[in-house]
Design brief:
Blueprint lengths: L9 H13 L12 E5 L2 E4 L4 E4 L2 H4 L8 H13 L11 H13 L6 E6 L2 H16 L3 E5 L8 H6 L3 H5 L9 E4 L11 H11 L5 E6 L15 H11 L3 E5 L23 E4 L10 E6 H4 L15 H16 L2 H22 L3 E7 L2 E9 L4 E2 L1 H13 L2 E2 L1 E3 L5 E4 L7 H19 L1
Parallel strand pairs: 3-14, 5-6, 5-7, 7-8, 8-9
Antiparallel strand pairs: 1-2, 2-3, 4-10, 9-10, 11-12, 12-13, 12-16, 15-16
The structure holds pyridoxal-5'-phosphate.
């Protein structure tokens, strides 16, 4: 598909007018067009223009839009049956997917896997499992965390605007701690521990939930040694360690589970987003003795582990393996870092370049010495990219991080073209 600048022509315009009339204003898409179809990392709008999607549907499209194997798996499963509710009749694809995700999870303990619909639901259930296992109440989360929008997950999410404003009251027994951010907030781990236990006694903490790389929080890779420190601390005090891998999982960082980078084994891991190639599916992968704590029918839901979504997920796992997408994530990450580091040398506004594997982001600042965030300039870069056929998104507590959630199947020329557009946008905003 040739890349042309998007124009809001008639088809999209009419639909956007209807959207204004019939869809609440909380639904506010980033892209100024309506999609007609997508392939790989490209989307076509109703007017026939093509765009490169560097957001991959918020990180759900590691294998790209409409991968033929995912499409075929969905079609074949849909022809057999689309639903039973696994608590009434169990099916093969549920069990096969559980087996594969458990076997992909390194660490000495045997694992089991349970499925849900969304990332938030997986997080909520990880908390329920932790409480059931420990018989404790407190949940510890981090500054900059994003865990979803249902009430417990929203309580655990940090950012007030746009997520929490006006939705109080929230859930009780959730404690928020600083996240050791090497760029903005390096920390002494001993002091971190003292701060935590001044807030809540260790024997009251059910779980600590962390993102191996903060996603919505601004693609923050934690300070070296922090994840290992968390693991030791949680073992010492009988606290369940939950890795929320909704955004980092499925190979995005160059390893199937991002926790592998830290050489630890969490007790519970949440997965969603790219798990089923965009079909709604999430999972909690857990160490057997922890995940088996809730009893018969204690956790579940009508649609959880939908068979069509499970079939899609099995196809996604095949594609990751067959197309070497873990290695590709590393390669893409190297390319992105190099390009961004070149931009950092040329443009003062690029304050930090960071990431793990293909999860790469840049932080835009008004002044490199004070690190004052540059949210308006970030939005200007995003708009300039959108106007030139490249969809990129922001992140970060201050809205000044540009994050790459590129489909790992992207072609070289699309990647290069996309980065040329980003560089021109940064150059324009810098002058
Ligand atoms: C780390 C993390 N956890 C949980 C969620 C929530 O997932 P969902 O939107 O599927 O509920 C997200 C979504 O962005 C996420 O990035």
């Amino acid at each position: 598909m040739a890349i042309k600048a998007p124009v809001k022509a008639q088809g999209s315009k009419t639909l956007f007018q209807k959207m204004g009339q019939y869809v609440p204003r909380a639904v506010s898409p980033l892209a100024p067009f309506i999609i007609s179809e997508g392939r790989g990392a490209l989307v076509k709008d109703l007017e026939g223009n093509s765009h490169i999607d560097f957001t991959g549907g918020w990180g759900c499209l590691i294998v790209g839009y409409a991968h033929p194997k995912v499409v075929r798996a969905i079609q074949e499963q849909a022809q057999k049956f689309t639903h039973t509710d696994c608590s009434v009749i169990m099916y093969d694809v549920y069990i096969e997917l559980a087996e594969r995700l458990a076997k992909l999870a390194p660490g000495p303990s045997p694992k089991k896997v349970i499925f849900f619909n969304s990332g938030a639901e997986a997080v909520e259930n990880a908390v329920k499992i932790s409480r059931s296992y420990t018989k404790r109440k407190a949940v510890v989360v981090f500054e900059g965390a994003f865990h979803g929008r249902t009430y417990m997950a929203l309580t655990m999410t940090h950012k007030a605007k746009p997520y929490k404003e006006g939705f109080a009251p929230f859930c009780s027994d959730v404690y928020r701690m600083p996240f050791p951010n090497p760029y903005r907030n390096p920390m002494d781990f001993g002091r971190w521990e003292k701060q935590l236990f001044s807030l809540v006694n260790p024997d009251e903490i059910a779980c600590i939930v962390f993102e191996p790389v903060q996603g919505e929080g601004g693609f923050v890779v934690p300070q070296e040694g922090f994840v290992q420190f968390l693991r030791e601390l949680t073992y010492k005090h009988g606290i369940v360690l939950v890795a929320d891998e909704v955004q980092t999982g499925m190979g995005r960082t160059g390893k199937f589970y991002a926790y592998e980078h830290y050489g630890i084994e969490p007790d519970l891991v949440t997965l969603a987003k790219s798990l089923a190639g965009g079909m709604p599916l999430s999972a909690v992968v857990g160490v057997q003795k922890v995940i088996d704590a809730p009893g018969d029918s204690a956790i579940g839901g009508t649609y959880v582990g939908n068979p069509v979504a499970c079939a899609a997920a099995l196809a996604v796992l095949d594609i990751i393996e067959e197309e070497g997408l873990l290695d590709r994530a590393v390669e893409l990450g190297q390319y992105m870092r190099e390009r961004f580091e070149q931009m950092q040398q040329k443009y003062e506004i690029v304050g930090d370049v960071r990431g793990l594997g293909a999860m790469v982001g840049i932080e835009l600042v008004k002044d490199r010495a004070t690190k004052e965030p540059a949210p308006d300039e970030t939005m200007a870069v995003i708009k300039e990219c959108l106007a030139n056929g490249v969809i990129i998104a922001k992140a970060g507590l201050y809205g000044n991080v540009i994050r790459m959630l590129i489909p790992l199947v992207i072609k070289e020329d699309e990647l290069k073209r996309g980065f040329d557009v980003i560089e021109r946008a940064i150059a324009k905003v810098s002058h």
